[in-house]
């Protein structure tokens, strides 16, 4: 018998009552306003749009976002196991649950709910069936007005880019901040929620002053598949052994050696920025500096990382401050080699977020009165395919290279 995890339920309830506009005021606090941080990305452009400013731009952006959400995510019931990891990367909890994104007949309304398996009764005879009990938690409804070409996705802090989606960053009533990254491939999704909480320097009494940063303390990983595609309870090792996924669908439970990340990749990239809007890029060859999926521990000591079986890599800031843009990343190898024409797929999602950005007085730029809500400033989704082995990647290859 399996019961619902209190930790998972607490996290879900916190996310359900997320607020995106509230912040705490702190008067007469001196704060040095940091310089604005920017990110650069260089490749061959496929298409580009301007950030939505006019009525027509806003309508076009809203329709594009709704179409992406409907195509890749609002496909019914996504069922799987939600696993919680702590700061040390240890598994602390798991539960069976579903994300329900059910569109109506004409695709103008989508009902969002979570279904948590609270109890499973194992059958005690060969001719009987297992039974389960579930608790449904409604999260709301997304709507699209075909007349005005507007939706409420942005109000819920949802942003799509190709097969990827980011929800948040959002403040919770508990004081924590959640950032959700999702990648979809075939009949499956990989969903990750990064949780950051208020933190103070050593020697400073918590709550005696504004938080000095947000520290990662929890991560929830969900391996999901459509209920219409795979039987209850969703993707499991036993299920994939008995009925291997077809080409084009993800295989979560398989060994992925570290060297499989190091390869020649090409494909396309969808980027979004507040100043440039949506842009499309063609990636013909990936530079070593951009291949962050091959550096699991990140490029600096502030990167928290977790590499899981099945070709899953997670990276996010250990500490987020108001002085720079924090980068949350998710990389996934959903399939292994399927044959001479399909050597493998790599999906990557990267969200640039800001938090604890100071709200300063107009009269005195050093006088802070509060914090702006956390914000998504950039989003990038890469859909890549393997074209060959990376030259010079192995020690044997490197020994053959003459200086």
Short description:
By secondary structure, this protein is mostly beta strands.
Overall description:
- This protein is mainly beta and 403 residues long.
- It has one domain (26-74, 84-89, 155-400).
- The protein is 10% helix and 46% strand.
- Strands 3, 4, 5, 6, 7, 8, 9, 10, 11, 12 and 17 form an 11-stranded antiparallel sheet that branches.
- It starts with 5 loop residues before the first helix and ends with a helix.
The fraction of residues in strands falls at over 45%
Computed structural class: mainly beta
Average pLDDT, all residues: 83
Q: What is the CA-CA span between the terminal residues?
A: 63 Å
The tally of beta strands, per DSSP, is 22
Count of runs of 4 or more consecutive helical residues: 4
Q: What is the N-to-C order of secondary-structure elements (H for helix, E for strand)?
A: HEEHEEEEEEEEEEHEEEEEEEEEEH
- Rg over CA atoms, rounded to whole Å, is 22 Å
Q: Percent helix among the residues?
A: 10-25%
Assembly annotation = single chain
The major beta sheet can be summarized as: 11 strands, antiparallel
Tertiary shape: globular
Tally of individual domains = 1
Poorly predicted ranges: 13-45, 395-403
């Amino acid at each position: 018998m399996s019961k619902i995890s209190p930790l998972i339920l607490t996290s879900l309830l916190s996310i359900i009552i997320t607020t995106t506009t509230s912040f705490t005021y702190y008067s007469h606090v001196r704060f040095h306003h940091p310089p604005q941080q920017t990110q650069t990305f260089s490749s061959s452009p496929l298409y580009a749009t301007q950030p939505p400013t006019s009525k027509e731009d806003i309508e076009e952006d809203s329709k594009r976002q709704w179409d992406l959400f409907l195509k890749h995510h609002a496909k019914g019931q996504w069922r799987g196991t939600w696993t919680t990891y702590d700061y040390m990367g240890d598994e602390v909890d798991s539960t069976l649950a579903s994300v329900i994104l059910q569109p109506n007949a004409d695709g103008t309304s989508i009902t969002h709910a979570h279904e948590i398996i609270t109890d499973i009764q194992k059958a005690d005879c060969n001719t009987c069936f297992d039974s389960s009990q579930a608790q449904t938690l409604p999260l709301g409804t997304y709507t699209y007005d075909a007349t005005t070409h507007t939706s409420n996705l942005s109000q819920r802090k949802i942003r799509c880019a190709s097969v990827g989606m980011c929800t948040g960053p959002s403040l919770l009533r508990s004081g924590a901040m959640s950032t959700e990254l999702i990648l979809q491939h075939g009949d499956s999704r990989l969903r990750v929620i990064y949780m950051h909480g208020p933190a103070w320097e050593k020697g400073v009494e918590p709550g005696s002053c504004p938080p000095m940063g947000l520290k990662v303390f929890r991560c929830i990983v969900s391996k999901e598949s459509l209920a219409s595609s795979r039987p209850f309870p969703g993707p499991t090792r036993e299920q994939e052994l008995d009925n291997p996924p077809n080409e084009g669908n993800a295989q979560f439970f398989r060994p992925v050696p570290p060297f499989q990340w190091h390869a020649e990749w090409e494909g396309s990239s969808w980027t979004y920025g507040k100043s440039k809007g949506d842009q499309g890029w063609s990636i013909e060859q990936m530079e070593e500096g951009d291949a962050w999926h091959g550096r699991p521990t990140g490029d600096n000591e502030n990167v928290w990382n977790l590499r899981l079986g099945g070709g899953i890599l997670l990276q996010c800031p250990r500490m987020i401050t108001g002085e720079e843009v924090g980068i949350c990343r998710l990389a996934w190898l959903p399939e292994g080699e399927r044959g001479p024409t399909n050597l493998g797929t790599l999906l990557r999602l990267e969200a640039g977020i800001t938090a604890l950005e100071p709200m300063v007085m107009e009269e005195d730029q050093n006088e802070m009165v509060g914090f702006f809500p956390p914000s998504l400033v950039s989003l990038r989704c890469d859909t890549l395919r393997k074209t060959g082995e990376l030259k010079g990647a192995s020690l044997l290859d490197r020994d053959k290279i003459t200086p």
